[in-house]
Design goal:
The structure holds two protein chains of two kinds. By secondary structure, chain A is of the alpha+beta class. Chain A is built from four helices and four strands; from the N terminus they run H-E-E-E-H-H-H-E. In chain A, about 35% of the residues lie in helices and about 20% in strands. Chain A is globular. In chain B, strand 13 and strand 14 form a beta hairpin. Classes of the chains: A alpha+beta, B alpha/beta.
């Protein structure tokens, strides 16, 4: 129970207040909209590649602080990464948010570990993972992502 | 002699003894992460007093068998207790006849029963069904399904900025094609108490029957279906200190008799051959299969419990909680109350500037305060007020003024985190 007290940490509140990479992209090659029908959270993620790497990324939407901070930190974390590396991070983040990642094992989570506590709040897990689910959908050019399809059970390319 | 008379006179019951009542509810002693539980999500589901739990245990320990079947002792006992529970519910809403009280699995089931049993037989293409903006999804979706199936049309009564129905607009919706009215007695999202008696009288003047969704009203107000003159009244047990999985549909006998059954099966028949089945009389016609016997008996115990306290005393205490909370929240900068009807039950929907309701809910939980966050199964209401969701504190008779203070302090701490 003590973990969620740490959830609203300064870094999350800061990203909520001043989200990074917030807005739209004029020339996005990949785009998806994520929606959590249970709470009305809705965000869009757009990105473009420069050869193998994610060159630019932006998100926009109305959501709670957890979702917005997660999206903001996600865009910062995956900028410059290859798609394959980004997919690994998506997988690790989803595993962490659902309590299936041992942070002591080698991983690429880094500062995103501030979201580890969300796994103690089942009703808020969806808030944290919506941006990642949407990014995954964008890679596969799926128009609408939804938290109602469990990303942990959805194979790649079938979001 | 004099003192005895005074002691038993109802008006001498002065202060509402909330601490004595709280002692009946074991769950209210819980600590959430070291903080005392402040349970303010009563509009979603209320808590159960020990008396109701004891009744459930007694039933399962010494009275349980299937009802209306065997001649052995337990079956006869269970049948008698199930029937007694029906009579308790009849008295609770002042229904004229026992057979007008149908046990359902809840309000949603009750409304679906009316949609299938009445709507599908008496509502035709081009007919009109009047609903209101304040309806819970459970009194919208069944009628949309019916409209899609039959080609009927739904007309919607608008509300003003306070969350009150516009009765002039309601009356203007009536025409020669109006066949049915569905209205929520107390709004679950905003707390508005609707003038259903007046609305029913107007509908009846046009020969139109009215279903009242009483899920939020039955726990807070003295409901008298004869005084309202409603044709149908639906409510749930779990919002009335009873178990989940049980609810009631009251219907006027004349209407119930001309309706078709909703579900087919055992208990709802008089005789079955492969050529023809003859249906049982009401209420059995609408209670196919083995009903939730224990839950019905538990609900009977719950209304006994509420009646012993008195629904008027409950309403008075809840109004005090509402007024106390409203006065404080109205003074808080950055807090907006959604729904300010003159006539309100103890529900406060609110938003906190710059903070999403889900964050409000999680941070209040951190202080032990349980509120509902989301759209409250009333998305048309949220759309009307242009908010995706709200936080909602809903008070029951076992809540105290100190718990209102805990809510206010909790909202202040939310604002501090997001400052």
């Amino acid at each position: 129970m003590s973990n969620y007290k740490a959830l609203y940490q300064e870094v999350i509140l800061d990203h909520n207040k001043k989200p990074r990479n917030y807005g739209t992209l004029a020339q996005a090659s990949h785009h998806a909209v994520g929606h959590n029908p249970l709470c009305g959270d809705r965000i869009s993620v757009a990105l473009c590649f420069d050869r193998e790497c994610i060159d630019c990324i932006a998100f926009q939407g109305e959501s709670c602080a957890i979702c917005k901070a997660s999206a903001s930190m996600m865009t910062a974390a995956i900028k410059g990464k290859s798609r394959a590396d980004a997919e690994i991070l998506i997988h690790e983040f989803l595993a962490m948010a659902t309590g299936k990642l041992n942070l002591d094992d080698p991983n690429h989570i880094g500062r995103l570990a501030v979201f580890a506590g969300v796994c103690d709040l089942p009703t808020r897990v969806k808030c944290a993972i919506l941006p990642w689910h949407t990014l995954h959908a964008a890679f596969n050019s799926v128009a609408i992502a939804s938290t109602e399809a469990d990303p942990m059970h959805a194979p790649n390319g079938d979001a | 002699m004099n003192s005895v008379q005074i002691a038993f006179h109802p008006s001498s019951v002065s202060a509402f003894d909330v601490e004595r009542i709280r002692a009946d509810f074991p769950i209210l002693q819980l600590q959430i992460d070291g903080k005392p539980l402040v349970y303010l999500d009563n509009a979603a589901s209320s808590q159960m007093p020990q008396q109701v739990m004891d009744r459930l245990v007694r039933y399962q320990t010494s009275e349980h068998a299937n009802i209306n079947r065997a001649v052995h002792y337990l079956s006869e006992t269970a049948t008698a207790e199930y029937d007694a529970a029906r009579r308790k519910l009849q008295r609770f809403i002042n229904a004229p006849e026992e057979r007008e009280v149908i046990f359902t699995s809840g309000t949603t089931d009750a409304i679906n029963l009316v949609m299938h049993g009445y709507g599908r037989w008496f509502i035709k293409p081009g007919d009109e069904i009047i609903l209101t903006t304040l309806e819970h999804h459970s009194n919208i979706v069944p009628w949309q399904m019916l409209a899609e199936e039959t080609g009927a049309n739904i007309r919607v009564v608008p509300i003003n900025d306070a969350g009150e129905l516009l009765i002039d607009e309601y009356e203007k919706l009536f025409n020669a094609r109006t066949r049915f009215v569905g209205v929520i007695h107390v709004s679950n999202a905003l707390g508005s108490i609707n003038p259903v008696k007046q609305m029913i009288a107007f509908a009846h003047a046009h020969g139109v029957p009215v279903l009242v969704d009483g899920a939020q009203a039955a726990p807070h107000l003295q409901v008298d279906v004869q005084e309202l003159d409603c044709d149908f009244y639906a409510f749930s047990g779990h919002k009335l200190c009873g178990p989940t999985g049980i609810g009631v549909l009251y219907g006027k006998a004349a209407l119930l008799e001309k309706m078709q059954p909703f579900k087919g099966g055992g208990d709802m028949i008089l005789s079955v051959t492969f050529e023809k089945t003859t249906y049982n009389t009401i209420p059995h016609k609408f209670e196919a299969g083995t009903p939730p016997i224990a839950a019905a008996i538990g609900l009977g115990a719950a209304v006994d419990y509420l009646s012993a306290i008195g629904m008027d005393a409950i309403a008075t205490h809840e109004l005090e909680l509402l007024n106390y909370a409203t006065a404080q929240m109205t003074r808080m900068p950055g807090v907006r109350i959604i729904g300010t009807a003159k006539n309100k039950a103890s529900v406060i929907s609110f938003t906190v500037d710059g903070v999403h309701p889900h964050d409000v809910g999680t941070l209040l939980n951190q202080e032990g305060v349980a509120v509902r966050t989301g759209h409250h199964c009333a998305q048309p209401v949220m759309k009307r007020f242009k908010v995706p969701a709200t936080s909602r504190a809903s008070f029951a008779f076992y809540n105290s003024m100190a718990e209102v203070d805990a809510l206010i302090a909790g909202i202040r701490s939310v604002q501090k985190v997001f400052a």
